[in-house]
């Protein structure tokens, strides 16, 4: 099967500019948080810089503080705190404790833990232990056992050959993280998550596996037979 290799976008993200949002019929600070031009930028320490036409302030969402006079003097939940909360909810900026990263498959922005290492994936392309997946090359069904968290061109198989060097993986990105999975037919009828690590697993680049059902094994009760496709 021919499958176009996924190459993430490599161009830098544009600089965030001040924007406005719909007022949504609100009044007071809630309205100003949406209608006044602001640019929100996350900092490495989990706080946010908010640039406005009237000044630049630092917001700490966890501590619920802002360096603006409205908060410092009146101890109010100022428009800057509100704007940061709005942009976090909208997915415009990462929540505290997370940072922006580029999905290794599609190149879209995603939010990951601050200490995350190696190639990262967005929600549409990540896999979890227990997920039922489809092998694009063979049509087989497998169950994911674990994430390797290394690139396909850095990860050997049990024979010592790099995952990226297998002919059947030629159409998938060398930069993609690797997942281990077991063939559905090899699972005992009463298998649970704890059993997956004891079965013979094979390694695949991320985009070779397409998700069929999240939590396929973990969602079942112990002793409940696995439905065979």
Automatic annotation (TrEMBL):
Pfam family, one: SWIM
Record GO terms (molecular function): zinc ion binding
Region (Disordered): 1-36
Polar residues biased stretches: 1-10
InterPro entries, A to Z: Znf_SWIM (IPR007527)
Keyword Transit peptide found: no
Keywords noted in UniProt: Metal-binding, Zinc, Zinc-finger
Domain SWIM-type: 57-89
Recorded superkingdom: Archaea
Keyword Metal-binding appears in the UniProt entry: yes
Protein name: SWIM zinc finger domain-containing protein
Organism field: Haloferax mucosum ATCC BAA-1512
Taxonomic placement: Archaea, Methanobacteriati, Methanobacteriota, Stenosarchaea group, Halobacteria
């Amino acid at each position: 099967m021919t499958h176009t290799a996924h190459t993430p976008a490599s161009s830098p993200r544009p600089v965030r500019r001040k924007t406005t949002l719909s007022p949504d019929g609100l009044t007071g600070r809630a309205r100003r948080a949406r209608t006044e031009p602001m640019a929100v930028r996350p900092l490495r320490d989990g706080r946010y810089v908010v640039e406005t036409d009237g000044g630049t302030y630092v917001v700490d969402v966890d501590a619920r503080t802002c360096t603006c006079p409205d908060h410092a003097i009146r101890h109010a939940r100022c428009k800057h705190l509100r704007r940061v909360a709005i942009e976090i909810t909208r997915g415009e900026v990462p929540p505290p404790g997370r940072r922006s990263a580029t999905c290794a498959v599609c190149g879209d922005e995603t939010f990951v833990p601050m200490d995350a290492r190696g190639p990262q994936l967005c929600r549409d392309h990540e896999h979890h232990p227990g997920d039922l997946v489809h092998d694009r090359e063979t049509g087989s069904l497998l169950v994911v056992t674990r994430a390797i968290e290394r690139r396909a061109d850095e990860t050997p198989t049990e024979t010592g050959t790099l995952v990226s060097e297998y002919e059947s993986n030629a159409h998938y990105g060398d930069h993609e993280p690797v997942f281990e999975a077991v063939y559905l037919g090899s699972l005992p009828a009463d298998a649970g998550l704890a059993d997956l690590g004891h079965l013979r697993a094979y390694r695949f680049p991320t985009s070779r596996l397409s998700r069929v059902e999240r939590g396929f094994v973990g969602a079942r009760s112990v002793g409940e037979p696995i439905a065979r496709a």
